Amino acid sequence: MKNRIFLLAFALLGLLPAIADRSNTVTVAVFSVNDFHAGLLPDARQSVPGAAYVVQTLDSLKQVYPYHVTVSAGDNFGGSFFYNATRNKSLMPQAFKDMGIDISAVGNHEFDEGQKALADKWHDTELRPRSSNLTYVCANVRNSEGRIPSFAQPWAVVPVSVGGGKSIHVAFVGLLTSNTPWQARASNLRGLSFDGNYTAVLDSVSRLPGYDQVEKANIRLLLTHIGSHMEDGTPKWEDRDSMNLKTLDRNDIDAIFSAHSHTAVIGMSDSRRPYPILQGLWHGIYISMFKCEIDTTNGRLVGITPELVRVNPNAALSPKAARLQAQIEEQYHTTLFRGMPLSRKLTVSAQNFRHDRHKNDLQTKMGALVCESYAKAYRMAAHLPEEALVVGVSHFGSIRAGFSKGDVTVLNVGEALPFANALKAYRYTGRQLLELMNHGINVCKLGRIQTSGVNVKQDKRGRIRSLTLTLPSGKTVPLHPTSQLIVVADEYMTTGGDGYLPSQFPKEAEQTLPLPTSTDAFIAYLNTLDSIR
């Protein structure tokens, strides 16, 4: 298989002698896609292969490994403008059915549409196949009654028939990052709590009735939407409660699927008891695969090999995958957003503009463009000149991608800014803006605050001491503590999203002018530019 890129593979060293006689063993492959974010449409400039090519690669792997299970590690649809624009006729249920995914971890973006939609599992989608089904596993989310909500269950066990009347059982126990309250809209999480004491959660779950299904399973996997990354060639946990992950030392876990941090991870976890761990970037760029060797005489797991398999974006598509691709392309060219096809060109990018969540401690050109569109939307609504002191601000994470050199379409803009949050405007003083900038640069852990033209002067300790503002005309003016200005931000940021404080956006200072959504403002702004440089 030419499309397979072998990054690292190894068997658990202590188990190698047990698999010397391979005549009694079978290989069960467990595949995972993480942080797919409804990456249905191919985008070569962003290395996104598209759903049809994920289907094709998975089908090729399944021919090699006929005994298999495929799951998702969460964030299946959030953060995708294409998904939002085609929501009523979303192809996500069809794509997951074609991939063979029936089980998923709960990601923080699973809450983007609210708890009711999460529980509904796409039943309101016109194109949902009748046989489509999805089970969410998550052991550490609780409702106001202290129970796991109805949209999830703590574990799932899947039987895999291996012939001769025998089945291998694969168990998945789900965990969701405790960062979720800071990375999802507060109103969509009402009544829920997220326990970051992961080891205690697993201890508690192991005492629930029916857990013997997990204990007796031949393969036991943690299916987590919790971040990890590679550091000096070694996987490291990346989470608010990573210390609780480092203490993992359980006999009922064989390996771990990671997600959320959008990185390629393969190796042994930095837990007290190291476990094989995998994460495959995002958008289906890689498929994570555990090859599990089972001794059929006693059902024991005797070896496990992790691999990352690169999805081939140039593969010849099977009829099944080609049908899905045709459906996706038809939606791309016919779906309208505000009367414009998603494929419509708005402007041209003269260079690549990056906005990388892994390099989130800087002001990016992309961030400045987005924030300037917020400021321009307010100036237009209030009939103010370009010299008016209006500042657009954004949390780093709302901007999901940059632009590649070349044409910029409605879809490109939407995928960079997919959430279409309402814009809010506030009367501010220079002192308030300085405090907000200090918070966004020195306190917020999820990325540097992005602005339209705010320049900072910091002392040796990094504290901001003074500000200036560069206006659209190119003129730079000082901002004094008593300076009067307008700050424009999206509603998610003003209600506590990404670690900002609602008190930083006082209700009494809010302006009542009707403003577009963040995405509408960005599209309107770029549509006025011949090019961006």
| DSSP strand count | 27
CATH superfamily of the largest domain: Metallo-dependent phosphatases
Low-confidence parts lasting 5 or more residues at pLDDT below 50? 1-20
Largest sheet: 6 strands, mixed
Total domain modules? 2
Q: Which class of the largest domain in CATH terms?
A: Alpha Beta
The global form is globular
Give the integer mean of the pLDDT values. 94
How would you characterize this protein structure?
- It is built from 13 helices and 27 strands.
- With 533 residues, the protein is of the alpha/beta class.
- It has two domains: 13-329, Metallo-dependent phosphatases (Purple Acid Phosphatase, chain A, domain 2, 4-Layer Sandwich); 335-526, 5'-Nucleotidase, C-terminal domain (5'-nucleotidase,  domain 2).
- The strands form eight sheets. Strands 4-3-2-1-15-16 form a six-stranded mixed β-sheet. It has a six-stranded mixed β-sheet with strand order 6-7-9-12-14-13. It has a four-stranded mixed β-sheet with strand order 22-27-20-23.
- Strand 10 (227-231) and strand 11 (234-238) form a beta hairpin.
- Helix 9 packs across helix 13.
- The longest helix has 18 residues, at 365-382.
- The chain is globular, with a radius of gyration of 24 Å.
- Mean pLDDT is 94; it is low at 1-20.
In short:
With 533 residues, the protein is of the alpha/beta class. It contains 13 helices and 27 strands.
List the helices and strands and how they pair.
Elements: E1 25-33, H1 51-64, E2 68-72, H2 81-85, H3 92-99, E3 101-105, H4 115-120, E4 135-137, E5 141-142, E6 155-163, E7 166-176, E8 193-194, H5 198-205, H6 212-216, E9 219-225, E10 227-231, E11 234-238, H7 242-246, E12 255-257, E13 264-268, E14 276-280, E15 286-295, E16 300-310, H8 319-334, E17 336-337, E18 340-341, E19 345-349, H9 365-382, E20 390-394, E21 406-409, H10 410-416, E22 423-429, H11 430-443, E23 450-451, E24 454-458, E25 464-470, E26 476-479, E27 484-490, H12 491-494, H13 518-526
Parallel strand pairs: 1-2, 2-3, 3-4, 7-9, 9-12, 12-14, 20-27
Antiparallel strand pairs: 1-15, 5-8, 6-7, 10-11, 13-14, 15-16, 17-18, 19-21, 20-23, 22-27, 24-25, 25-26
Helix pairs in contact: 1-8, 9-13
